[in-house]
Amino acid sequence: LMTFFIGLRNLYEAASGEEASACAHFDEQPHSNFEKLIYFGYQLVRGSSPYPSALKAYERSIARYI
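Structure (tokenized):
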């Protein structure tokens, strides 16, 4: 999962030219394109998990990588 999130971040930044950032929102839904990619990718692995779970997994992966 860590490899997926790191690769996704690098691919997004290279393809879009924008910084990949994700954050929590009051409605617990992804808002940016990158957040949606994180969420949909996480759902492929973990099923019907909510966005906050995907965000937490992403944040943990990035923290371990740095």
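The two ends are 15 Å apart (CA to CA). The first helix runs from residue 2 to 16.
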